[in-house]
Amino acid sequence: MDTVMTSTFSASVLSSGYALPAGTREALDAFFRSFGFSQERDLSRLAVWALGARRVDSREAALALARERMENWLAEALGPAHVSNGALLARGRAAFVLCDGARWGAAVLMSAPSALPVEFTRALRASVPVPAPRPLPTTMPEQTLTTWSLGELLRRWWRVGEPDVSVSR
User: Does residue 91 sit within a domain?
Assistant: First the structure.
């Protein structure tokens, strides 16, 4: 009888053997939940992926590493056309959620963007929201106002009752 062994690990103790500071795992989970991930296994794998072999002393440092790692992945996955417009993490998160990238699991973020399936890359790039132009103060063009005389108003009202006649003439 063959048995299948799956590795179960907790991201609160990383593969390098040290424990994460209090609240760090929860902060990383919240960060990756904002991308649509909800399964515990995916969240654990992503916490390990985000930190790599680096030691972190605080949750802010862990979140900074996770943001940096995601921005680098999104920059490579989205391509140069979407990187130059700024707000990469926000736009990339929106695209990832809109194309339901979390259904691919944590493996999609752990693989190199060049190795992603073509349909995923296409869907991700098509889902990037287009930024709106910045509002600029402008002057409103002058508009002309047409006033009708009382006679014209009466003529239009009188013609309403006539068959096959347009009111506007």
Answer: yes
pLDDT tens, residue by residue, 115-165? 888 999 999 999 988 877 788 888 888 888 777 778 777 877 777 766 666
pTM above 0.85, yes or no: no
**48 CB neighbour count, 10 Å cutoff:** 20
CB neighbours (10 Å) of residue 92? 25
Number of domains in the chain: 1
Write out pLDDT tens, residues 71-97: 999 999 988 877 766 688 889 999 999
CA-based torsion, 42, 81, 61, 31: positive or negative: negative
Other beta carbons within 10 angstroms of residue 91's beta carbon come to 20
Q: Which domain holds residue 28?
A: 24-126
- 11: exposed, middle or buried (Cβ count in 10 Å: 0-12, 13-18, 19+): buried
| Residue 14 maps to a domain | no
Task: Please check whether residue 32 lies inside any domain of the structure.
Answer: yes
Q: Is residue 154 part of a domain?
A: no
Query: CA 123 to CA 120: how far, in whole Å?
Result: 5
Count of Cβ atoms closer than 10 Å to residue 31 Cβ: 20
